[in-house]
Design goal:
Blueprint (H helix, E strand, L loop, with lengths): L3 H35 L11 E9 L2 E8 L15 H19 L2 H5 L9 H24 L6 H20 L4 H36 L6 H26 L4 H4 L4 H25 L5 H16 L16 H8 L3 H11 L25 H6 L1 H9 L14 H15 L5
Antiparallel strand pairs: 1-2
Helix pairs in contact: 1-2, 1-7, 1-9, 2-6, 4-6, 5-6, 5-9, 6-7, 7-9, 9-10, 12-15, 14-15
Length: 411
């Protein structure tokens, strides 16, 4: 058998890379069109039906752009549809959710000191939360509340805050923050799939039939597009958050998530206002800084519960604990890694276990066998800079321990 673990790691890397690429395409086009829409200029000489125009220069050429309020009198033969950026971003993100959190549920998704749940139930809860989130949001937008942009955004913020708290009561901190990103991104992508693109197709169909398009369709699409614009920056934060345990692994992580949404809204408000009116409302950055200081303060409260050996191991982790090579392997990890990866790190300058990964008990070492193998046996990523002087012989012994359990062999 070849080394399946390494192949899985490279597949995860390829999907993550794809996710970043298509995410850049989606976010870039979203930001561009919001800026374009807000920067349109009106004057008396505009053609009938044109809401505004804009001249732009890029790459040595000039672009003259007109926006029709509903649709042009004559439909052009070739239309460019901006949809696949959204679809592929969600699909690759969901693939990452499967690869990292569903396939590695016992380690990355479930924290039995928080909520003791089996893997199928945890995955089912994850999927249900994403679907329910979209349905609830869509119903709110279509309700009378949807006519009030500010009122709707306040209610949506409350829902996001409740979901943040709820995820923290069920999943690991990393999974909770990842799910906040997935929850929000699902709403954003579903807006494109279920509302924006279908409405545009209805407008095109009306024109082809010689009928006047319904202006309400454009207004509804615009509302969802604005929501997507304001939600983008928080989603980016949650995509990156698994590198920062001070965000996801402290006592008030759910409140930190809520403040991140407010900061994202403030920053987008600055740029949206600047593009539409030319005003630069710098107070938004001042308030964002105050909220960020609040995040730093909240992150100073460590979690009250302690993850120790009493935590039940998954069946897979138990096999690593029972293996004949475990005693030697665990001594290596305790000697070379646990000065940082501990409840109270002893290494100077490290106040919290990196990525909230602890390796200071036998159970935790067994639970993190795969990460130890990839980070310290098959690569020299850990310890960083080999500050604890892990030897090649020790890395080989970690390889022997892992492959003894999995039956894999080096490629």
């Amino acid at each position: 058998m070849t080394d399946f673990t390494l192949l899985w790691e490279w597949m995860a890397f390829a999907v993550r890379w794809s996710h970043v690429i298509v995410g850049i395409a989606w976010i870039g086009s979203s930001f561009y069109f919001i800026a374009l829409d807000l920067g349109l200029r009106k004057h008396a000489d505009l053609p009938a039906g044109v809401q505004g125009e804009e001249w732009q220069v890029h790459g040595g050429g000039f672009y003259h752009i007109n926006k029709y309020m509903v649709a042009p009198p004559n439909l052009p033969e070739h239309l460019i549809w901006f949809k696949w950026e959204s679809y592929t971003t969600w699909l690759t993100g969901f693939a990452m959710l499967i690869i990292v959190y569903y396939a590695g549920a016992d380690l990355f998704l479930i924290d039995r000191t928080v909520f003791d749940i089996d893997v199928p139930a945890a995955i089912g809860l994850s999927l249900a939360s994403l679907a329910i989130g979209w349905v609830l949001y869509d119903l709110l937008c279509k309700s009378p509340l949807g006519k009030s942009q500010n009122g709707l955004m306040i209610v949506l913020f409350v829902i996001l805050l409740v979901m943040s708290w709820g995820y923290m009561q069920v999943f690991t901190g990393r999974a909770a923050f990842l799910h906040m990103g997935a929850f929000t991104a699902t709403i954003m992508s579903a807006n494109v799939f279920f509302i924006i693109i279908p409405n545009q197709k209805k407008i095109v169909a009306s024109m082809k039939a010689g009928e006047a398009p319904d202006p309400a369709l454009g207004a509804q699409s615009k509302q969802r597009s604005v929501h997507n614009n304001y939600l983008t920056l928080p989603v980016l934060f949650f995509m990156l958050s698994n590198h920062y345990p001070l965000a996801f692994a402290t006592e008030y992580s759910w409140a930190i998530a809520g403040l991140i949404f407010l900061i994202g809204v403030l920053i987008r408000h600055f740029f949206n206002t600047m593009h539409s009116t030319g005003r630069r409302e710098y107070w938004t950055f001042g308030l964002a800084l105050v909220l960020f200081i609040g995040i730093i303060w909240l992150s100073s409260y460590p979690k009250t519960q302690d993850v120790g050996e009493e935590v039940a191991l998954s069946a897979t982790a138990q096999t690593f604990l029972d293996d004949a090579h475990f005693e030697q392997a665990s001594q290596i990890v305790l000697g070379r890694c646990s000065m940082c990866h501990a409840a109270e790190p002893a290494y100077e300058g490290v106040d919290m276990a990196p990525k909230d990964v602890r390796l200071d008990t036998p159970n935790l070492i067994a639970a993190h066998a795969r990460e130890i193998y990839v980070q310290s046996a098959r690569s020299h990523a850990m310890p960083p800079g080999n500050v604890s002087f892990m030897t090649d012989a020790e890395r080989e012994l970690l390889t022997v321990w892992y492959q003894s359990v999995t039956g894999e062999r080096s490629l």
